[in-house]
Amino acid sequence: MNNISPKEIKKTDFKKSFRGYDNYEVDAFLEALSLRFERLVEENADLVSRVNTLTTDIEVYKENEATLQRAIVKMQDLAEEIVESAKKKAENIIREAQLNAQKVSQDTEKEIITRKNELEELRLRNDKLVEDVKLFFMEKLNEMDEFVKGRNIFKMELTRHVPSGEYSGDTDSESQEEPTLKKISINTSGSGFSE
């Protein structure tokens, strides 16, 4: 009797007995009861269907929620990885920039030292060149002094040249011959002398 249907309610016959219920009233009640039961069954079926649909939707929502939670966890993990990766990249960029700055600084210092050495070498070469030019000029001046000394001509003048025995001591200038002046040049350059 648990699974009774509306049709079974309509078709149910009761035994007739003397002094029983009025058949029309019973049939009318059964008809009303059958209709009400039929509506309840339909409503129940509709409610069961709706419950099933809602249960399915809830399962879908639960699945979506679980998927969403997994996605959120993955996104959090991914975000942490991105942040960590960005930090590492930033550290690498900073380290590389520091190394580059150190290299540039070292290269600059080396270049400065090289240029200083080159300047020092040029200064030394310049000083040596000036010293060489000084020595050259001094040698040439010495040579010129030697040349001038070697080419210097000394002149000697004799006031009188009197042969011995010709001068009598007489003061008479007319009676005596005027002594001759002779000029002797001596060349110290080794070319001899000339009269």
User: What is the chain-wise order of helices and strands?
Assistant: HHEEE
Helix segment count? 2
End-to-end gap: 184 Å
According to DSSP, the number of beta strands is 3
Question: What structural class is derived from the secondary structure elements?
Answer: mainly alpha
Question: Overall mean pLDDT score?
Answer: 79
Oligomeric state: single chain
Largest sheet: spatial strand order: 1-2-3
Low-confidence stretches: 190-195
Q: Helicity level, as a percent range?
A: 55-70%
How much of the residues is beta strand, in percent? 5-15%
Choose one word for the global shape.
rod-shaped
Largest sheet: 3 strands, antiparallel
Radius of gyration: 74 Å
Short description:
The chain has a domain at 6-80.
What features would you describe in this structure?
- The chain is mainly alpha-helical and 195 residues long.
- The protein has a domain at 6-80.
- Helix content is 69%, strand content 10%.
- The chain is built from 2 helices and 3 strands.
- It has helices spanning 6-11, 23-151; strands at 153-161, 180-187, 192-194.
- A 3-stranded antiparallel sheet has the order 1-2-3, with no helix packed on it.
- A hairpin with a 4-residue loop joins strand 2 (180-187) and strand 3.
Provide keyphrases for this structure.
single chain; 195 residues; mainly alpha; 3-stranded antiparallel sheet; 2 helices; 3 strands; rod-shaped
